[in-house]
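Sample A.
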Amino acid sequence: MSSTADEETILAIVADQQKAWNRGDAERFGVRFHEEGSFTNILGDVFHGRTAFIERHDFIFRTVFHGSNAALSIRRIHLPVDDAAIVDIDSALTGYAGLPAGASAPADGILRTSLLEVFIKNGDGWWIAAFHNVDIKPRRA
């Protein structure tokens, strides 16, 4: 597969993640998360494995992020080798019920994060091996 086709596949996976988030569908959100993947949330909590990834998202979709909408905008796809991709994503979250303790949003109420996803490719396609999400703090004067 060429890098253009690989990039198109990754774009489609991220678009599917956005749709799944906006439906509150944790199973679909985690469908391309690697069985042994690493997940760090905006609070710095670390989880490992697809099951934990899906369970954590199911919890937040039912609680603080119930009814929220995510806009995921890919800033960069870097393919350093044929079977790995580093994907930088800007995320903007609106319509949430609340924020977890320790997270904050600016006055406009949009929770912005910088999401880094590391993809690996094997015989059955591209998988998210690492998902590292950091909330962007409001700038200090």
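Sample B.
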Amino acid sequence: MSNHLFILRPSGWVGEGKIQLNMMEEELGYSTRWSITEKDSNGQIACLQEIQVKGISDVMQNQFLFFDLGSKNFSIELDNPSIGKILGKGVLTDQLIAWEFRLASKEFEGVEVYERQSDDSYLMYAEYATADQLRTIIRGKVWQDLLPPLKE
């Protein structure tokens, strides 16, 4: 198994970056938070990703399920409120965690690449396209959240 800390070990991650939509000139800033659970008895890792785009009050949520984890590849399920559940494939190298979705029936495709840096943070790049010619490009960085979670 890879020595990646992101995704493959239970932890919290935070990040920030820029989102560019092809229908808008300006880039929008965003912040993100990942909550990654312990691998369950079926070998699956569940993750919740929350994205807050600056200037938009709603927090977007994506549920990811990583499974069939091998030394160089894995399967992934994305559950998103606006598109539903989509299955994808991922690859692991010493420096990269990446996955892609291609769903012809919903005319949806996307790719996300996380490149490990020397400080164990990750530079990320993502690109998604939908049937209505909407294209979203995301660039950012995530790092492990070392602060303990807030108590309710």
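B remarks: The two ends are 35 Å apart (CA to CA). The chain has one domain: 11-144.
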